[in-house]
Amino acid sequence: MQESVFTLHNLLFGIYPYICLAVFFIGSWLRFDREQYTWKADSTQLLSKPWMRIASNFFHYGVVGIFFGHAVGLLTPHFVFAAIMSDIAHQWLAIVAGSIFGLCALFGGSILFFRRFTNQRISLTSRWADKFTIFWIMLTLILGLLTIPTSLHHATAYDSKAVTSLVWWVQSIVYLYPSPHFIEGIDMIFKLHLIAGMTVFLIFPFTRLVHIWSMPFGYLTRAYQIVRTKRLKYQEINRYDLGKTPEL
C-alpha cells in the first residue's frame, strides 16, 4: 500500500514553509499599505535605559550574524562550497560562527527578555504581541544553540549528512520543488529548530518585527553631510541696544 503524502512530516516541512512565506510577504505588504502608523520599532529606551544599549547591541549584532550565516550557508549552491571547502569544513564553520553569534544574541536577548517581563514600566506598556515575540525569538535561538552539541558529534565523526540534508531541503523549498524527505532522518532537535524558525516568519507581519524591512541601507551610500555651527559672539549689551541685532 502506498504511503500517504499527507503525513505530519510532509505537512510540516513541505507545506508549512509556504504558508509561513505567504503570510510573511503578503502580510507585510498589507500592513505597510493599510497600517503605516503601526510600522515602527516601538523602542522602550525612554522608559528604562540601564543595560539597554549593551543588550540591544549584542542582540542585534548576534541576530544579524545568525541571519546572514544561515542565508549564506543554506542558500549557496553545493558546488560553490565544494569548490572552496569540504562538507566537514562547512559544518565546522557553521558550528563556530553559530556559537559566536548565537551566544551574543543569547546574552543580549536574555537581558531584553527579563527587562520586558520584570520591568514594571515596560511590562505595563507592552502589548501581548511584544512579549510573545521576544519569547518566541528566544525559544528559536535556544533551540538553535541546542543543535550545536549534535552538530559537534556529527563533525567529530566526519558525518556531514545532516548539514548537506538541511541545505538540500532549504534549496528545494526556495526552488519550488519541496522535498521533505531530505530531512526525514535528521535529529529531532534540528526539526524543532526549523519549525520554530519558520514560525518567526509566520508571526512577523503581526508584530514590531516589521521594522526590519525599514533598515536604513541607504545610509551607507548617502552623500556626506557637513554641519557647521553658527555661534554668536559673547559681548556686553547696553540696555539701550536691546533692540539691535548682535554683531556676528
Report on this model:
The protein has eight helices and no strands. The chain is an all-alpha fold and 248 residues long. The chain has helices at residues 8-34, 52-75, 78-84, 87-118, 120-125, 128-156, 161-174, 188-203. The longest helix is centred in the middle third of the chain and has 32 residues, at 87-118. The mean pLDDT is 87. The protein starts with 7 loop residues before the first helix and ends in a 45-residue tail after the last helix. Helix 2 (52-75) packs antiparallel against helix 4 and helix 4 runs antiparallel to helix 6 (128-156). The chain has a single domain, classed as Transmembrane di-heme cytochromes, Chain C (Fumarate Reductase Cytochrome B subunit, Up-down Bundle).
Defining traits:
8 helices; single chain; 248 residues; Fumarate Reductase Cytochrome B subunit; mainly alpha
Summarize the SSE layout with pairings:
Layout: H1 8-34, H2 52-75, H3 78-84, H4 87-118, H5 120-125, H6 128-156, H7 161-174, H8 188-203
Helix pairs in contact: 1-8, 2-4, 4-6, 6-8
